[in-house]
Amino acid sequence: MAEQEIPEVKTAKKQQISQNYWSLVWWKFKRNRLAVFGGIMIVIFYLVCGVFAEFFTPYVLQYQSNYLEARPQPLVFKNREGQFSLRPAVYGLEEQIDMVLRKRSYAVDRTKIYPLYFFVKGQPYRLFGFIPADVHLFGTDPADAEAHAFLLGTDRLGRDVLSRIIYGGRLSLLLGLIGQVLTFVVGTVMGVISGYYGGATDIVVQRMTEFVGAFPDIPLFMALAAAIPVTWSPMLVYFMLTLILVFIRWGGLARQVRGLILSLREREYVLAARSAGASDIRLMFRHLLPGTMSHVIVIATLMIPGMIISETALSWLGLGLRPPLTSWGVLLQEVSSVRSIRFAPWLLLPVPFVILAVLSFNMLGDGLRDALDPYGGR
Amino acid sequence: MLSYILRRLGYVLIMLVLVSFVSFLIIELPPGDFLTQKLQELQARGDRSAEMRIAEYRARYGLDQPLLERYWIWVSHFVRGDFGDSFAFERPVTEVIGQRAGMSVILALSTITLVWLLAIPIGVYSATHQYSFGDQVFTTISFIGLGMPGFLLALLVLFFAMVFLGQEVGGLFSRQFQDAPWSFGKFVDLLKHLWIPALISAVTGTASLIRIMRGNLLDTLGQPFVEAARARGLKERTVVWKHAVRVALTPLVVILGTEALPNIVAGDALVSTVLNLPTVGPLYVRALQVQDMYLAGTVLVFIVGVTMIGSLLADLTLAALDPRIRLE
User: Fold this and answer.
1) Which of A115, A346, B132, B294 could be joined to A89 by an S-S link, Cβ 3.0–4.6 Å?
2) C-alpha neighbours within 13 Å on the C-beta side of residue B123
């Protein structure tokens, strides 16, 4: 036993010494369980909502059923005869009219049981926008026209809330990602230029960031978003919102990068590169920028949740994305009245998804912060 | 010192001019202003005097004149304290904002008080009991709180209050006190309603303040003067609260100035909108939605003004509290 253990310890130690920066980072990141959980959640979010939304949703985006504002159907493990079975199923819905409130509502009808099937052929869609397909992850028996499964209920127009949350995540999450990539590019380029050249260039860039920074985030964002003409097409509005987010947020990143560049540019290796005849561009982006990257990645990751929240808040207020588009904020527009919270509380279900996405990004960013500095800390 | 203050004030002034211009531009950007909509609406209703009233507005604010001219008219009125008329309310902006400013200040002050009352003791506990079970619990809670958007939290609170308690939590007053003059009963009623929005708005602030306080105090506790205080035989409680905490608190003045103070103007517009509070925040949101330009512009300029004055005050207070800091 003892003989076996010793060589193991030795190799482990040897590996640790010879490992380069990135494998050390990975090694430290892996040990932080919360960060790994956050990272996995984000990958799942982007795969389910961003890439394969059509496959994971039981209904296509445009589908409107005849069940308006139906409550979520509870999941049970029973077969059609009511006996226990491993195959999940849902109870059917029965329409009722509430005479006091003069309102139509649905009750669970325990006599009808619709089993759920996996990889069923359902409504046709185009994967990635061009591959025709009709397989959904789960759904009711396609032969039974009566069967329906709205696991999270339906909205005012009879659309499946679960499908809409998944589709909504696509726009919300992509806005966060695209916006952050653009912010990252603008912020680092401006920061590097400002820090490297100094002098008048630096002053101009600094004043610009200070000016944008003088406006508090949300009020400025609201004001700019309110200025988008109502007549514009939804996609153009989406694009403009992304640009506005970038415009508001690049300053913070640029300042951080500038500070790091200032401390790096006096190092000997930069002098060496310069004496070897490296051009300004090469010095900035080949020699200086990589030194700031670990820091910048952390800031950028921690900025994404802010973007997602901003979009959600704005669309919810009616200042951001508008109905033909589906995002988490647009979905929440339906619950802006107290009435809908009382009678259709399942329309609030996008909220936990937004919070989960935001927390996952925070966990990932926090873990990255510790991991990207593998030489220090505990 | 005086020349520093003067220079900073001059800087604030220049920024305010720029900000006012940009605010004006932002509000002018959307095609088709509020008045055009209003005119159509009034004409549809068959209001004969509509055109005259609208024309009067146009002449008064020079809406038919070029952009720079319009800006000049707006600004010259602005500095004299005339912020224009709110088109949606058909009353002066000063009046519309003034009506709600009091409640905004009350809400902001109670939020700030709550944040500090909660965060400082928890932060101190976390730092003095580093890595203990309590510390881990508080660290986790503050981590979640930091990522929790206030308005979504408000929506959830609204839902739970309604479904499980059967109670509506919106607003700041019960119905019978809504328009009643101030009395002790109304004050008590206000306190009954105020704690929910204050608590919700306080979540994010508390979470970040706990983390900052914990970090600051941990740094301070490692310093030699703390060791010296202990060596003199002082009680641990005296060492922590009288020596370390005082030093660790000083940098937090900056947060008070740059984050807490600006919140007074449109603090948590989103939370207030969800909970339907009579504060300035929802007013600003509404004004932007219907393009009530003078109202929105005035609030925006005030927000930025208070932000910059807040950061100036923070710098000055910090310099006064901490003799190591020199203002250049």
Assistant:
1) A115
2) 29
* B169 in reach of chain A (CB within 8 A): no
User: Which residues lie closer than 8 Å to A134 by C-beta, 6 or more apart?
Assistant: A121, A122, A123, A124, A125
**How far apart, in Å, are the Cα atoms of A343 and each of A103, A150, A156, A350, B156?**
10, 17, 11, 16, 15
For residue A132, what are the contacts with CB-CB under 8 A and spacing of at least 6?
A124, A125, A126
Highest mean pLDDT, choosing among A132-146, A171-185, A211-225, B176-190? A171-185
What's the mean pLDDT when you consider all of chain B? 79
pLDDT of residue B46: 65
Residue A346 C-alpha from the chain's centroid: 21
Helix (H/G/I), strand (E/B), else coil: B186: helix
User: How close does chain A come to B132, measured CA to CA in Å?
Assistant: 16
Residue that the structure tokens 């095609």 belong to = B31
Instruction: Name residues 259-318 of chain A within 8 A of B (Cβ).
Output: 305, 309, 312-313, 316-318
User: So what's the pLDDT on residue A378?
Assistant: 41
The residue type found at B162 is M
For residue B315, which amino acid is it? D
List the alpha helices (DSSP H) in chain A. Answer: 2-18, 21-31, 33-45, 53-56, 161-197, 199-214, 217-226, 234-264, 268-275, 280-282, 289-317, 328-332, 338-343, 350-371
Helix (H) or strand (E) holding B91: strand B91-92
What pLDDT is recorded for position A285? 83
- Sequence-distant (6+) residues with CB within 8 A of B153 are B200, B203, B271
**Which tens digit of pLDDT belongs to each residue from B220-262?**
888 888 888 888 888 888 888 888 888 888 888 877 777 777 7
φ, ψ at A74 (rounded to 5°): -70, 150
Q: What is the 3-state secondary structure (H, E, C) of B247-267?
A: HHHHHHHHHHHHHHCCHHHHC
Give the gap in angstroms from C-alpha B263 to the nearest C-alpha of chain A. 10
| Measured CA distances, A195 to A60, A188, A199, A208 (Å) | 50, 10, 9, 14
